[in-house]
Write a structure and sequence with these properties.
The chain is of the alpha/beta class. It contains nine helices and eight strands. Helix 2 packs across helix 3 and helix 6 packs parallel to helix 7. 42% of the residues are buried. The mean pLDDT is 96. The chain binds pyridoxal-5'-phosphate. The site of pyridoxal-5'-phosphate has 13 residues, from strand 8 and helix 9. Pyridoxal-5'-phosphate binds next to strand 8 and helix 9.
């Protein structure tokens, strides 16, 4: 066992224990929760290690980095993870993302949906998509995300894009605020969307610092980086 492998294995164990404890406290089953390990800025060798340690879902947030690493991963191992694109996405990167992502978490405008549809058709693939919600009390148009009252409108319009399957909602807790009421708002938005679109069952919420609050408010998919892989290399 290399030191890096030990470090990742310990981070995974600690995180899985936190998830189990939070699920138990919320009266939920940890089996209903999907852990997505966010690997941005970390090398492909870490992805290989994660897969060896049983991780099935990985997250990336920068297109070029993700495209390169996933091509390397296909060379390195035959076992391929489910790939989640979790970062803000520009329209000119949508076709590339549509060629390798299984789930895109950050759809927040119709023009982006149209670009993903085009890319998915070209790649002969279907994509699962989540609508990103801005949970800030004072939404910031530069940070991305729909306001809670915009979500249902875009959810209804997605049927115009047959290669995109609406699967739910995603959010990042507002910076410096209590994540609990924010994730409670997300759950209300998710329930509203699900009433009109029964297949939209995913609530993607919770990161290294707030996964307990997310689990107690109904999150189904957790996006965890630092708690498993340590601080991101270029940020050290
Ligand atoms: C980087 C990132 C994460 C993981 O954050 P950590 O704090 O390292 O756990 C989760 N979600 C998104 C959208 C990210 O960009």
């Amino acid at each position: 066992m290399s030191p890096r492998r030990d470090e990742i294995a310990e981070g995974l164990d600690r995180t899985r224990a936190r998830i189990r404890a939070a699920a138990e406290a919320a009266g939920r089953s940890a089996d209903d929760l999907t852990l997505i390990v966010v690997t941005k800025f970390h090398p492909v060798s870490d992805l290989v290690t994660l897969i060896e340690l049983g991780v099935t879902d990985i997250g990336e947030s920068r297109d070029q980095e993700a495209a390169t690493k996933l091509a390397e991963l296909r060379e390195a191992t035959s076992e391929q993870p489910t790939v989640h694109f979790v970062g803000q996405l520009q329209r000119n990167k949508a076709a590339s993302v549509a060629s390798y992502a299984d789930v895109v978490h950050s759809v927040d405008r119709e023009r982006l949906a149209a670009a993903l549809e085009k890319g998915a058709v070209r790649a002969g693939r279907r994509l699962e998509v989540l609508l990103q919600v801005d949970l800030d009390e004072r939404p910031d148009p530069h940070r991305g995300g729909l306001t809670p009252h915009e979500v249902s409108g875009l959810a209804d319009r997605l049927h115009a894009y047959p290669s995109l399957m609406l699967r739910g909602v995603m959010a990042v807790a507002p910076l410096g605020a209590d994540p609990d009421p924010a994730f409670a708002r997300l759950r209300e938005v998710a329930e509203r969307v699900r009433r009109a679109h029964p297949e939209a069952t995913i609530i993607s919420a919770g990161m290294s610092d707030d996964l307990e609050a997310a689990i107690s408010n109904g999150a189904t998919h957790l996006r965890v980086g630092t708690a498993i892989l340590g601080s991101r290399p270029s940020h050290r």
